[in-house]
Amino acid sequence: MSHKKNKSETFKEQYAQIVSEANPDLLGRAREIGYLEEEIRQVPHGAVEIGLGCGNPVALAELHKGQVVLDLGSGAGLDVFIASLKVGPHGKVIGVDVTPEMVRKAQQFAKEGRYTNVEFKVGQIENLPISDGSIDVIISNCVINHSPDKLTAFKEALRVLRPAGGMFISDLEPIPVGVVLPITPEARWCAAGDHG
What we know:
- The structure is a single chain.
- The chain has one domain: Rossmann fold (3-Layer(aba) Sandwich), CATH 3.40.50.150.
- It has 8 helices and 6 strands; from the N terminus they run αααααβαβαββαββ.
- The protein has helices spanning 2-17, 26-32, 37-42, 45-50, 57-60, 78-87, 100-112, 150-160; strands at 68-72, 92-97, 118-122, 135-141, 161-171, 188-193.
- Strands 3-2-1-4-5-6 form a 6-stranded parallel β-sheet.
- Helix 6 links the parallel strand 1 (68-72) and strand 2.
- The radius of gyration is 16 Å and the shape is globular.
- The two termini are 27 Å apart.
- 41% of the residues are buried.
């Protein structure tokens, strides 16, 4: 257990350093992993320059006006800001990230960009600061693979989803053994990434 905690703490420390190391080259990388030029132009540049995803889960998620969306491991908010444009002013997008520095940066971008339908919270994906059954759609971009307890992370996601909710993941690992996703006509699941 202490090995998991040490790995998690090390990741958190390294990730926190990225806040001060914006990289304009990531704009090109964002295009390479599936972000559209018009999406990139509509969101805070800094969120793109700090983005560390491996795909575009918002593109997978067919979001609609008025939905409540949760981004697991939201970082500087790139996917939150893109999703906020899709759910509109009557929808809401909540970003949860383990790193206070990233949350503060995302909050700064939201304030500067006058986003009124986004919220950023410090929290762990294994213990989400979100009410049961309150989320329509969960997105996650290259975060779950860093979790020291993936099974608990998926259980937490299921806890906060509404019964007909969906989860759209872009990540580097397959869904872990032991995670059973409900298969119903209403359920929508999509995982994309390098599973090789």
